Amino acid sequence: PSRIRTVHLRRFKDDGRRFAMLTAYDAQIASIFDEAGVEVLLVGDSAANVMMGRTTTLPITVDEMLVFSRSVVNGVRRALVVADVPFGSYEASPQQAVATGVRFLKEAGVHAVKVEGDAAMAPHVRAMVAAGIPVMAHVGFTPQSEHALGGYRVQGRGDAAARVLEDARAMQDAGAFCVLMEMVPSEVAAEVDAALEVPTIGIGAGGSTTGQVLVWQDMLGMTQGRVPRFVKRYADLRGVISEAATAFADDVRSGTFPAEEHGF
Ligand code: KIV
Ligand code: NA
């Protein structure tokens, strides 16, 4: 199957077709999603949460993200691979943003990077695009700004709707090939999708965006405890794995494993 490229996402929108994106952080999971036909894989800085057990995305480093990113690239044949540039690795200047973006394409082999931010990040995105780095923009609720935004909150309610549209427009004008919206009212996301030429991706943004994304551990029931209301759980992997681990430990304790056929 031929590769999904950024131009194809644009074509999906033009043709009124939807596409799927899931996060991935390792080669095996990436290959499963790739073979299942998921068009885009996101090496999210949510790796800080789901892979490293941190409570925010802020502490993850470029070097850590590069390991996850390279692993996903190695597991993929068809999907477009996008990696998050982590907090602190791009905001200081367009030059810093270009240098970080180059590392993701050069050292990890990803096809694009995702940048969180409002209109203030437009010069950074413009510089990255000019350097040959495809950029997906992330607006609305941006987890790297969790402390500035006062926690996990829906963005763009009421008068703030205009701000989301403004940010999305600024990112498109700066050359972003796609705009992802997180936790914005469904009507606002619909308005933004209609106003933009580039495709949009939603998470907690209703059903009018061109694509949808979820964190795979949330989607497959790996995440412990409460998950956000925008998550739909498609499997209970935590239960499956827990049962298998319990059975293995029981077999070892009882002497049932290994059996004769497992020995040499
Ligand atoms: O890091 C991440 O997983 C993300 C998605 C939730 C959009 O940015
Ligand atoms: Na992210």
TrEMBL record:
UniProt keyword list: Cytoplasm, Magnesium, Metal-binding, Pantothenate biosynthesis, Transferase
Signal peptide (from-to): none
Pathway in which the depicted protein is active: Cofactor biosynthesis; (R)-pantothenate biosynthesis; (R)-pantoate from 3-methyl-2-oxobutanoate: step 1/2
Residues that bind 3-methyl-2-oxobutanoate: D45, S46, D84, K114
Residue positions of the active site: E182
InterPro entries on file: Pantoate_hydroxy_MeTrfase, Pyrv/PenolPyrv_kinase-like_dom, Pyrv_kinase-like_dom_sf
Taxonomy, superkingdom: Bacteria
EC identifiers of the protein: 2.1.2.11
Subcellular location: Cytoplasm
Record keyword Cell cycle present: no
Requisite cofactors: Mg(2+)
Organism, as annotated: Nesterenkonia aethiopica
Function: Catalyzes the reversible reaction in which hydroxymethyl group from 5,10-methylenetetrahydrofolate is transferred onto alpha-ketoisovalerate to form ketopantoate.
Family statement: Belongs to the PanB family.
CDD domains in the cross-refs: KPHMT-like
Catalytic activity of the protein: (6R)-5,10-methylene-5,6,7,8-tetrahydrofolate + 3-methyl-2-oxobutanoate + H2O = 2-dehydropantoate + (6S)-5,6,7,8-tetrahydrofolate
Protein name: 3-methyl-2-oxobutanoate hydroxymethyltransferase
Subunit structure: Homodecamer; pentamer of dimers.
Sequence positions that bind Mg(2+): D45, D84, E116
Gene that this sequence comes from: panB
Lineage: Bacteria, Bacillati, Actinomycetota, Actinomycetes, Micrococcales
Cofactor binding comment, as recorded: Binds 1 Mg(2+) ion per subunit.
Alphabetized PANTHER family for the sequence: 3-METHYL-2-OXOBUTANOATE HYDROXYMETHYLTRANSFERASE
